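Q: What structure does this chain adopt?
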Amino acid sequence: MKPRGSQGRPFRREERASRSLLPLLQIQFATSKVLASAEDLQSALPSVIASICLNLGWELGAFWQHAATRPVLTCTHISAADTALGTFIAESRKNELLPGEGLPGRVFATSEPEWIANIHEDKDASRSLAAARAGLQSCFAFPVLVNSDAIAVLEFFSYTFRPPDQEMLETMVGLGRQVGQFIKRKEAEEALQNSFELHRNLTDSASDSIITMDELGTILVANLACEKLFGYSNSELKGQSLTMLMPEHMRARHEQALAVYLRTGKKHLNWQRTEITGLHRDGHEILLEVSFGEFSLKGRRLFTGFIRDITERKRIEEAVTASERLAVIGRLSASLAHEINNPLESIKNVFHLLRQSASAQDAAYIRTGEQELNNIAEIIRRTLVFARSARSEGPVDAGALIDESIELLSQRVRQKNAVIERRFRGSRSFIAVPGELRQVFVNLIANALDAIEPDGRIWLRTHTETAPSGEESLVITIADNGRGIPTEVRHNLFTPLFTTKGAEGTGLGLWITREILQKYSAKIRLRSRTSPPHQGSCFRISIPLPSVS
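A:
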């Protein structure tokens, strides 16, 4: 890099001013000290400019920077010891220079320093006239460099005639690189801080707990949800082993599994939606669903875990399972009681006929038999009464019950990566037993999940429909793009104990579904195709709604 004068020619050796190196060394030392302790460019520039002016005897210094939104240079910092330069300072602040325009613009465009011994010889007449009116004679400028490109310009003026000084310019170019490195470092720090803040805001707004740890299992970062889930603050978690969040019996297994993975790459467990047990600070255990991911940062292997508390979901699933079992037992009991009641009446009639012609001894036996039959009849009567009265009815919303059913089946939805499309229209509440209808929807949606392939789709719709008679009904459709139901199977679908799922099926789901719907005078219909392009099944439920007075 060869510094040039105002006429664009290189300086000759004899043009260099003979001067002491001490002021230049003082400037370099002072600049390094300022940049080492400064928080940002705004706080560093006044000291850097003042150091150059005081040590080298220049009256005014200015910093020109590329505007953020326009392709021009603006004077963002300018200072002088002499208040008489106030007018020139004000004009400089208002100035906007294109790259190549004026001394700062030329230095910015070429990334080369420039010295103007006589301001009247400057090619930029307007700016040189303003400087001349202020009594200024000489000036120089040097680029603030990142690699070989100028990102800003520092400019200085003197009242006295100053011949070009190549040693000074070369020192100033080095100082410009130093300032450029400081600017880029601060920009990188700011970007890193912004990225960290963005990451913190995103993770803290997440409902799931998020933990990042290193390959030794040491916790590096934990979000706000993690603090709430486990009862520890972020500062208490940071630097601790992940095993502190596990029950005692799991810790050794985790450490062994991590060591095996780091050595061989073989995973002990599936890293996606694995159900494990966690440990709260107060000692109680938590049912968790965990997914882990691995990434590399500056040569370090790091792991991020996404953790969800599924305690409530498990409780609901167990309650629903228990409710379904009780419902099956109840319906079977009611069905058996109903079926037994008719033969009992026949047996009673037979005993009545036998008693008319029986001996005294036989009559005593017959009365004993009739008494036992009456006891059985009473048991059957109470069973039927219990089955009829075990319905806790109330206002229900079909759309809300369908949403709850999907939540109960969320694990299976994720395993299939199923796309669920919902559209609930015209749905109004009606009186029913919520648990019964929820069971209907769970049965049908679960069957749809069994039928579809991974990434399959399920459509859930509700709308109201008015018959010509004026009767209004709520129509619910549950459709899928699965394999469809063969024709020879369809007529047995609602038969008790009939199943196509082998040992995994009970053959009671659709039978119970129809039994429940019949209580509400509802109808269920099936449309299914087993061949493309419209492959899949669609169940259509129509529930009569009470008239609105």
